[in-house]
């Protein structure tokens, strides 16, 4: 069980606000802040290259911690500036052409969908969006049928979408893709640090994650897992002298492990902070984190669903700490602004990030409130009371008034 008082003491931001925007950028614990700033101070005192050499062990430990977080080996981990760049390094390395097919889901994230569409225009690859089942998650029977057809080169999907609380059945998708001999690329941007993940159970060949969201790390950090047996399936999109060695005037040799997907230059202070964030999550236990976050998500969902004129829009048989909702008669941006005025942070997810999902449900945007384990039941009740007051203050008016 997580000691909530302790983790709140470790989180300075909880003293002044109710932060329900963890799906956007979570509040870091003090250890992440201290580790990052300490590294920057060392660079200022001794020089960047010199600090990198002196703290090689600390930087290498980040790979170990990230690997432990998802059940991987350190050699299967690569670092990136963000999750999208980590994802790009693999996806854009695929050699695709006419007759090839990519299978994805309706809840796919906008950046990934744009990449599919760009490759379709460039190469002639077909992008096939698998429909939802009755619960709103990816339809596994339809996926299995599509995998039986020729030409499938990749199954790629988002584990938890940006626009709601759905948890897609990634392990079941991975099992189907594995049985069909098709690589599986999993965008775990919202699930790393929120769910208890194991790449062996997920059966994914590639997994990408970010530091700034539920992992509570610095912005400008991301990472990539590539299964050792799948390393040769995905040629890196770009190479430099961090991912390969220039062995002769006309030859080069790629790194043997996942660092072939990295570039040489990094924000090493942020890398150190990312390692501290992974260590903090490991110290609490990812199973305990998942249980706490999912319970708070359900409490927030019930609280909002009980308010007149509030509609909760989360799909799926399994749901997480992200809750999407709208208030009849109010734009999502207005709800966000009203809550911000009371020092409650939420976000807005728009159709531009989810064109295959929100418009099909008649939505142009939703308010996104996302709980983390350091939030409290009292904070959720307070946020609910503010939404209820907002509804009352903006109720229907008699046109004769």
TrEMBL record:
The keyword Cytoplasm is annotated on this UniProt entry: no
Tell me the cofactors it needs.
Answer: pyridoxal 5'-phosphate
Output the InterPro entries linked to this UniProt entry.
Answer: Aminotrans_V_dom, Aminotrans_V_PyrdxlP_BS, PyrdxlP-dep_Trfase, PyrdxlP-dep_Trfase_major, PyrdxlP-dep_Trfase_small
User: Which GO terms label this protein's molecular function in UniProt?
Assistant: transaminase activity
Keyword tags: Aminotransferase, Pyridoxal phosphate, Transferase
The chain positions of domain Aminotransferase class V read 19-381
Member of which family? Belongs to the class-V pyridoxal-phosphate-dependent aminotransferase family.
Which PANTHER family does this UniProt record tie to the protein? BLR4730 PROTEIN (PTHR43586:SF24), CYSTEINE DESULFURASE (PTHR43586)
Name this protein carries in UniProt: Aminotransferase class V-fold PLP-dependent enzyme
